[in-house]
């Protein structure tokens, strides 16, 4: 199956034209996420990562609200951060997966998150995400790159192609603009990204042992589609 997503609009703007240009795959539909989706985005994130990252982000009402506020602020005030979601038209219409693509460099973006919530493990959060930022800087420096900041899929909807649609969308934009893409992937997730041309650039002894630093160089658009 070929996943095709039309990215004819500049990544710095969100328009009605872009929304109508995004195509579907089977009953899965990819479209921009909006502020009305933020609580559902947080639900999907905890379903995907809660057991793994509970030490940093405990699943409490207060921390959930922190995530909701962070997503809402990004969507409303950071046009260079693009939230896209996948819904199943045969289901209830709620997001089953979503991604956050960041089209800025770290210097352009500023702080990745708002101040950590009191219930978070602040030291661990700062060390973990600080290390990820250091790895991105090591590999790309100030070079323009598009960063797959987050990708989350509900476990019961894994292996349906939703994650691939979200990755393909960002890769298409990167190819159109001639810009490298970057991701901090788990070792379990790395094979998915390799299918889209991401290469493991991890250096032994650098970063975290279970995180793979991956870079994808831009390709001509007719080479960017995955069967």
From TrEMBL:
UniProt xrefs under Gene3D superfamilies: 3.40.630.30
Source domain of life: Eukaryota
CDD domains documented for this protein: NAT_SF
Any Pfam family matching the protein: Acetyltransf_1
GO molecular function, one term: acyltransferase activity, transferring groups other than amino-acyl groups
N-acetyltransferase domain residues: 28-222
Stored InterPro entries: Acyl_CoA_acyltransferase (IPR016181), GNAT_dom (IPR000182), Trichothecene_AcTrans (IPR052523)
Coiled coil region boundaries: none
Protein name (Swiss-Prot/TrEMBL): N-acetyltransferase domain-containing protein
Source organism of this protein record: Byssochlamys spectabilis (strain No. 5 / NBRC 109023) (Paecilomyces variotii)
């Amino acid at each position: 199956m070929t996943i095709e997503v039309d990215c004819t609009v500049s990544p710095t703007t969100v328009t009605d034209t872009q929304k109508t240009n995004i195509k579907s795959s089977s009953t899965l539909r990819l479209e921009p996420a909006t502020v009305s989706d933020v609580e559902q985005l947080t639900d999907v994130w905890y379903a995907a990562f809660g057991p793994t990252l509970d030490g940093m982000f405990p699943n409490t009402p207060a921390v959930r609200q922190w995530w909701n506020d962070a997503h809402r602020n990004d969507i409303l005030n950071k046009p260079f951060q693009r939230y896209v979601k996948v819904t199943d038209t045969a289901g209830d219409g709620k997001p089953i997966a979503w991604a956050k693509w960041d089209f800025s460099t770290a210097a352009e973006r500023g702080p990745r998150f708002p101040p950590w919530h009191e219930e978070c493990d602040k030291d661990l959060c700062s060390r973990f995400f600080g290390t990820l930022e250091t790895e991105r800087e090591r590999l790309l420096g100030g070079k323009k790159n598009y960063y797959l900041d987050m990708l989350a899929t509900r476990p019961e909807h894994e292996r349906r192609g939703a994650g691939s649609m979200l990755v393909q969308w960002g890769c298409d934009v990167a190819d159109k603009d001639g810009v490298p893409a970057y991701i901090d992937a788990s070792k379990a997730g790395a094979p998915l990204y390799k299918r889209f041309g991401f290469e493991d650039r991890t250096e032994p002894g650098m970063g975290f042992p279970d995180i793979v630093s991956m870079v994808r160089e831009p390709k001509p658009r007719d080479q960017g589609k995955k069967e």
